[in-house]
Every structure is written in structure tokens, then in C-alpha cells.
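Morning, I've got a small favour to ask if you have a moment. You're getting the sequence in one-letter code plus the fold written as C-alpha cells. Thanks so much in advance, here it is:

===
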Amino acid sequence: MGDSTDADDISSVVAFRSNGNGRIGVMWSNQRDKKTYFAVHHDGDSDATWQPREVALGDGVLALSDDHINLSTACDGYGNVYAATKTSLTGSGSPFIYLLKRTFNGVWSSHLYGVYDDNHTRPIVLIDEQYRRLFVFSMVEYRSNNKRDIYYKSTDLDNISFPSGLGTLFIHSTLDDKVSNPTSTKHCVSAATGIVALASDQNTRYYLHNFLDLRKEPVITHFTPTGGLPGMAVTIHGRNFTGASAVYFNGTPVAGFSIISDTQITTAVPAGAGSGPISATNSFGTGASLQNFMVAPLAVNGKLFLQGAYYNGLMHTVLRDNGVLSLAQPFNKPPWNYNGAESVAAMPAGVVDWVLIGLRSAPQSAALAYRAALLKNDGSVVDTSGSGPVLFPTLPHGNYYIVVYHRNHLAIMSAAAQTLNGTSALFDFTTAPGQAYGTNPMKQLAAGVYGMISGDGNNDGVVNIADKESIWRLQNGTPWSYEKSGDYDLDYGIDVFDLNFYWRPNKGLVTGVPAEQ
């Protein structure tokens, strides 16, 4: 089939189909006559019958043949064959790697991949027939230091043209600076498969690999927040967002969105949306998130005890049982100045008192929102319905510090930010002192049980003489009313027990909640 070849020459074989008929192709180098050849065998012909050899590359003058060949075929059935080959040329700017293409009727074309200066070698070809892309992976041995890495370039399959330079770094090792011998599948690839390329290093003797995602439809990796109510702003992260024509929340289209970049979209939760994946559409298709966006208000599911009301694992409900608890939230005055409209028509059973919940993004930041809530005798903090978590409809799902205020106990705050969403896990302050922020922020009420510290009648964050003289002493023995805060044990009376059993033991204790800045 050919002239005499050199001992350093190489050949490669490929099976392909042309117009529905099976073919076998063989490519070989001939460094003696400086050409690369290709010959075709038709299925059904005798083993010794081959079509006339074709010159794939070479004019017999320039040394365009060498010992590196990698063959690949398109998966379209038309008989296109592609090959990456190396030349023997040297000198700055000289062609070093070519991508060769053979059409179904045997017409060859050559396309420059890299020059001598770049020193690409051992190239492999992969074809994405779905999006009509061709990829070439090769080893680069840097001429300055002989280190090696794996790079790749890609091109339009119907208009082959590679950018100059090394290409995109694909496989690199920090443990061994000589990575070589790239390899991958011989099959055509697609968005469903992606590309996995493998290489080996020289010294540590490891195989290394990397993956290339070929999808062109939008890919949504995550979004912030992870949940919220209609109208809430959402930032979607991923890729392939350029040219997006629609965004959906569980199938409900958004009225408008902004493409900030190819990797970011901003929008808002549309009215009528339900919990489910977020998806985006472009001309290549639709991509959906793997995780669901939860269309539900942020919920705080908490448990805590008040020292003043605690007894034997529960808290008493003397104030509720005597009908003296306020029906409206009591934190609309200093130092809280919270103007929320929370109220009840009748106080639910089992309620100990009101508490105020604040959510912070950082320990010393101002609260982003407050809600007044009811504290039940088992320690559960519930919404004004008397059951269920405390809802924050204006806040997005995310991580927050939970702050709890009471009208005569030292405030507490979660020691760390908690992940809060529409179905937040229980955060239990009562199990350990380390559940709350600060040094000794809670009082031990029993073995393994901790609660908020009583005695802060003026709510300045410290149990001191002012809570005795300005609060308890002035209220001691006077008719009880809810507006009075000297009833440190919440037993419907202001007396010496409040002083001796709560104020005196707690004198000097301070809240662990940092001041808002």
C-alpha cells in the first residue's frame, strides 16, 4: 500500500460509516517522504482489497509527518474522519500540530492547532455531535523548564479554526510537574456524557482526570436565598445564562429577570409559585436546579425556659391562669420600641408569657426583623395562634442569629447563626450553656437544663442595684399589673421572694447579647 517507512513511523486504525456503509480506515506516517497517508477498506470487499491511498497531509517538501496520530470519526453517519497529527518541523512559528478532516468523498483539509513554540504533543480528538464542537486535548511540555500539563482547545465542527496559544489548562498536578499522556473515550460525546480526560504523571505515578461539562442549556448550581414568599428577590447562580429567555419557579414563569452575567440572574419569586426547582430556558433548552426553592415564610422553631417560672421540667402558667397576661404584645415601649401588631383575642392554654424574637445576620449587627411570640410551659416558642413556629414573612431563608428578649429576664442569643427556612429545625437553648452567645449567658435550672436569667427589671442588660431600687422596691407590695416588671418569679405577686430568690443570686450577671451596632 505504501513506500518504505521509517522505524519511528506510526499508524492508527478507525472504523466508520459512510452513507450507511461500513468502512475501515488506516492512517500512517511516512517520515521518509514527509507525508501522512490514509487508506479505506469497504466492508464486504476481500481483506486484501483497499481503495487507493490518499495523502492526508504533506507535499513531500516540508517535514509534515511524525510519530503522533489520533483518529476520530463524527457520529453523523456521513463518513467524516478527523485526525490530530504532529509534524517534524522545528523553528519558531513552524506548524507543529494539525487537525485533519476527511469528508465522505475523500477530500482532506488541514487546520493548524499549534506551533513549535507551544510544544503541544500527543494530541487526542473528541467530537461533540450534539452541539457540533470538536475538542483536541494535548500535552504541553514547557520549553523553558520541561514541566508538563494537559491543555485543550475547541472549535466549531463546521468551521474549524483554533485560537493561537496553549489553550485552556485542563489537568495540572501540584505534586508532580510532569503530567502527560492524555487519553479519553473514542466515542462521540454529548451534553449527557460530558468529557472525561485522563492523564498520568511521571514521578508520583498517579492517574489524574478532569471533567468538562458540555451542556449549553442553562445550568443552575444554587440560588440565594433558598426560600421565601412571592415578591422576594432571588439571585440565581450557574452558567450559560446569556440569552436566557425565561425563568420559572416550579413551572410558574417570572414576570421579569435581569441577566447580570453568564453566571448570574436576579429575579423575584412570582405570585402563585409553589415550592420546587428553579429553571431557566435558552435557545438550547431548559435547565433546572437539583434543589427546591421553598415558597414559605421563614420559621423560627425554638425552645427556652425562663428561670422565674421554671419548676421541675416545666414552667408554671400562673399569669395566664389568672387572666392577667396582656392580649397584645408588650414590647411597644423602651427599650424595645417594637411596633408589631401581634395580639390574641384570648390567651391560648399553656402560655407563660410573651417574648420578643429578633434575627441578626451577625452577632453585633442590628436585627433585620422582630416578631413577638408566646412562650408555652414546655419551653416551646410559638406564634400567636398558640402552636407552630414563629413566622418571619419579610425575611429570606438563610442563616441568622436568634435573639430572645423578655420583660424581666436577661436576653439571650444563639451562639452561632442558625439555618432558618420554611421548616427550620428546632433550636433548643435549654440543653447547654454553650447554646447561647457569651460568657455564662444562662442559669442552670436543673441537671442539664438552662434558662434565661431573671431579675433584669429595667431591661438594661444587667442585674444590678437599679433593678432592686427603681423596680422591685417601688413595686413591692403594690397591686399587681402586667406593666410592672418586678415580679421576677412571674407568680402574680411582687414580694420578698422575687428579691431573695432571683435578684440577689443573680446580682452582677449580664446578658451575653452584644449591643446592636
